[in-house]
C-alpha cells in the first residue's frame, strides 16, 4: 500500500500547507451569519492535494436564519449545523482519509463522532483548554479523547499560525458564548480535579 501522507519526512512542508488550509478555513468561517461564533472547516485529501469540501456553521438550507433566531442563543444552538458537519455532508464518502481543518472553535464531541465515522484520518484545530468552565472546552476535551481512541491524529493549531491569521489566541480557542444551553448536563463532561 502506498503512503497516503504526502508530507512524511517533510514537516516544514506539512506546516506550510497546514497554515494555508487553516487560512482557507478562517476565510470561509467569515461567511457564517452566526453573530457570536464564525467557524470554518476544510476537508483535504492530502494524497491528491485536493480540497474535497468546505463548510461553515449555519442553519440547514431553506431554514430561515433570521436575526431573531440567531440572537436567541439556546434556539440557535438547537438549529445550527456545525462547520465540520456541513463539510462532511458535502463531502459524503470522499471524506474518507481526508484531513479536517477547523478554525473558530474547538472540535466538539458530536463533530468528533462524525469525523471518526466518516473516516477522517487527521484533525487540525484549536486544542481545548483543560480545567475551564467553558462548555466548548469541556466537550472539546471529550472530542480529543475520542479521536485519540479511534486512531485519528490531532494536530493543535499553533499560536504562530493563529497570529499569522490575525486571530486572537484566546478568542480563537475559547467559547465566545457564555450561555451554556446544556448546563444541566455538564456533570457528564467532568474533567480534571
Ligand atoms: Zn461541532
Explain this structure:
InterPro entries: CMP_dCMP_dom (IPR002125), Cytidine_deaminase-like (IPR016193), dCMP_deaminase-rel (IPR015517). This protein has 193 residues and is α/β, with parallel strands linked by helices. It has eight helices and five strands; from the N terminus they run αββαααβαβαβαα. The protein has helices spanning 11-29, 67-71, 73-79, 83-91, 109-117, 135-150, 159-164, 169-173; strands spanning 40-45, 50-56, 99-103, 122-125, 153-156. A five-stranded mixed beta sheet has the order 2-1-3-4-5, with helices on both faces. α5 (109-117) links the parallel β3 (99-103) and β4. α5 runs parallel beside α6. The relative contact order is 0.14. Bound molecules: zinc ion (ZN).
- Per DSSP E runs of 2 or more residues, the count of β-strands stands at 5
Largest sheet: 5 strands, mixed
What's the helix-strand series?
HEEHHHEHEHEHH
Principal-axis shape equals: globular
Q: What is the CA-based Rg, rounded?
A: 16 Å
Mean pLDDT: 85
Strand content: 5-15%
State the strand order across the main sheet: 2-1-3-4-5
Structural class, judged by helices and strands?
alpha/beta
Number of helices: 8
- Hetero groups: zinc ion
Keywords:
8 helices, hydrolase, alpha/beta, disordered C terminus, 39% helix, Deoxycytidylate deaminase
Amino acid at each position: 500500500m502506498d503512503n497516503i501522507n504526502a508530507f512524511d519526512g517533510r514537516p516544514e512542508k506539512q506546516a506550510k500547507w497546514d497554515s494555508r488550509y487553516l487560512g482557507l478555513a478562517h476565510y470561509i468561517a467569515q461567511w457564517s451569519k452566526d453573530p457570536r461564533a464564525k467557524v470554518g472547516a476544510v476537508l483535504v485529501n492530502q494524497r491528491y492535494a485536493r480540497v474535497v469540501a468546505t463548510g461553515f456553521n449555519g442553519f440547514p438550507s431553506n431554514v430561515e436564519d433570521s436575526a431573531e433566531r440567531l440572537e436567541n442563543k439556546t434556539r440557535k444552538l438547537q438549529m445550527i449545523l456545525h462547520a465540520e458537519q456541513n463539510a462532511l455532508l458535502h463531502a459524503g464518502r470522499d471524506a474518507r482519509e481526508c484531513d479536517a481543518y477547523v478554525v473558530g472553535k474547538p472540535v466538539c464531541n458530536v463533530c468528533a463522532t462524525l469525523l471518526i465515522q466518516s473516516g477522517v484520518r487527521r484533525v487540525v484545530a484549536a486544542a481545548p483548554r483543560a480545567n475551564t468552565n467553558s462548555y466548548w472546552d469541556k466537550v472539546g476535551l471529550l472530542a480529543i479523547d475520542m479521536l485519540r481512541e479511534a486512531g485519528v491524529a490531532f494536530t493543535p493549531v499553533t499560536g504562530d499560525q493563529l497570529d499569522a491569521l490575525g486571530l486572537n489566541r484566546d478568542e480563537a480557542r475559547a467559547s465566545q458564548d457564555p450561555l451554556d444551553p446544556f448546563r444541566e448536563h455538564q456533570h457528564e463532561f467532568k474533567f480534571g480535579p
